[in-house]
Amino acid sequence: MKESALKISKGVEQVSSLNPNLKTNVSKNKKNVLKVDEYVQGILKQDLLMLSKGITLVESNNHEHHLIASEIIEKLLPYTGNSIRIGITGVPGVGKSTFIEAFGEYIISKNKKLAVLAIDPTSQRSHGSILGDKTRMENLSKNPHAYIRPSPAGGSLGGVARKTRETTLLCEAAGFDTILIETVGVGQSETAVHSMVDFFLLLMLAGAGDELQGIKRGIMEMADMIAINKADGDNFHKATGAKSEYSAALHLFPPTASNWIPKVLTCSSTEATGIDQVWNHIEEYIQLTKENGYYTRNRKEQTRYWFREFLTEAIQDNFYAKPNRKEKAKSLEDRVVKGEITSLTAIRELMES
Amino acid sequence: MKESALKISKGVEQVSSLNPNLKTNVSKNKKNVLKVDEYVQGILKQDLLMLSKGITLVESNNHEHHLIASEIIEKLLPYTGNSIRIGITGVPGVGKSTFIEAFGEYIISKNKKLAVLAIDPTSQRSHGSILGDKTRMENLSKNPHAYIRPSPAGGSLGGVARKTRETTLLCEAAGFDTILIETVGVGQSETAVHSMVDFFLLLMLAGAGDELQGIKRGIMEMADMIAINKADGDNFHKATGAKSEYSAALHLFPPTASNWIPKVLTCSSTEATGIDQVWNHIEEYIQLTKENGYYTRNRKEQTRYWFREFLTEAIQDNFYAKPNRKEKAKSLEDRVVKGEITSLTAIRELMES
Prior knowledge:
Two copies of one chain form a homodimer. The two termini of chain A are 32 Å apart. In chain A, helix 7 links the parallel strand 2 and strand 3 (146-148). Helix content of chain A is 50%, strand content 10%. The longest helix of chain A has 27 residues, at 294-320. In chain A, strands 3-2-4-1-5-6-7 form a seven-stranded parallel sheet, with helices on both faces. Chain A has helices at 3-6, 13-18, 30-44, 48-59, 63-76, 96-109, 138-142, 157-173, 189-194, 236-251, 275-292, 294-320, 325-337, 343-352; strands spanning 84-89, 114-119, 146-148, 178-183, 199-204, 225-228, 263-266. The relative contact order of chain A is 0.11. Chain A is built from 14 helices and seven strands. Chains A and B meet through helix 5, helix 10, helix 12, helix 13 and helix 14 of A and helix 5, helix 10, helix 12, helix 13 and helix 14 of B.
């Protein structure tokens, strides 16, 4: 395959990765098959360098890299799924990094292998994504039982979500049994993370004032646990009060599909208090949901959900791959929003073009 | 156009309505142009029979009817948008019909013209949809200032949502200045309704027990108001207590995009208490959001949202209109869920087929 055909411009990664017009025959290329097996064997041997290289393929916008990544994941599928996947969200300032350091070290002290991933569709690697700076979690990043991977560079939420899902699978195949997926708590990405984890943890601060400004409505009702962070020093009593208030509020919410009653607790990342309770509740949750069947059912539903999301995106990208369609859709949308034409007229015009 | 080409089988209504392969030239057909103008003039003259006929076209699964409906709406667009659109949800048993009767009569007493619509994608007209039985709102249905329209018959949520959006526009052109859109509160349809109204009202009962079983998590955080219904007789004190609890809980939620602080109040549909307060708060909300610009911004965003939803659906339908694609997608999905292949492999296989 010619090099020129592989050059993919930014912003069309989904199109390129799924566009059937860009066929290659990697699987028939002996050199690449070997290469795929090298990755597969390396990852199964828990070689972190091979894991990182594999994730780099997953995150690449190069079509051929994608095909290789896809083959690697396919071969690793039987070795995936054996981790507890935990989503962590909270607005900037809530102390996510410090919490993850303390929580991560606690998890590792329980003889677990921990991978920390992140979703931040707005990030640009050049501008420093969340987790991009490993000094943010200095101790954890030096721990041989922890693997920290920054958020893939910006793109559509669907693209970033796919990369994070696939990275999770690679980490599982590499023996990581606890995966934390961090998100910034201010946009669409929480819903995405909620749909790819077993347990969803919301970090909050005491007080319902400015600290809450950034959090999107609806996230509280997704949470399996609310941890009031920074419950230390002068803040301790305020945090304890907040705990009572949130407990009362959560009690008014409708029951969860998992039959789990969401917990509220306080913790301090700096004093390392309450961290054990967070973990204990997660273990309780996993036990409960494995017993009542929700755990497996939820994972299957998530797989189905993401398959449908990715397929929808692929069909859309295929449609918009034709020249000028995107521009035409945009100008029709503007006319619909201005009230000049109906949606139906606009859609018919676009579909007939 | 031949009659046979117009026969649309059930379950493919979106395909039929938007499929460019089914072209007609209604606009060049003199008879139909006259017909369109008859509808338009009739609706603008507030002729309820013409309104009902127009809505029937909107709800039809017949492609030609759709095209006529689209032309009617296009001509009426300049006369639309002048109503307050209110979504009402709550689980079965909360007393939605009785509330809407009492609330509707109060609204009419304020010299308003009221239309009551419903969204219930699960309904089958033959099995009696919500609002299908007008005796449910006996007094309101006899009131000359009220127009009650049952939910369109079952289909995809997108299809039902489009029909309800278009029906709203027709009602506005016919002079209705207050539109209630009712939904059952147990599925996806609340999010859809929330995205097509100015104000979203959640009806609840006192007590957080069994009454809540059906409500989906996330709906409470969407509500601009929670009204604790049936606050009468023995239930009065319980309802007042619930009001305090929910007020405290809502206080902990992050601020709304509209800057509105969601209200909690009690009401009794049978004793007609609290109904005036519900209306007063809605008027306050409309005033606030018109002043701060949210009202107009939100409407534009909603139009954009639905255009994108309908367009996505049309592109999907167009893709699946090819023979066997749907079956192939289903069988690939099953393999993905079983963990036999990755999403990417499945998608590539489908896109290349």
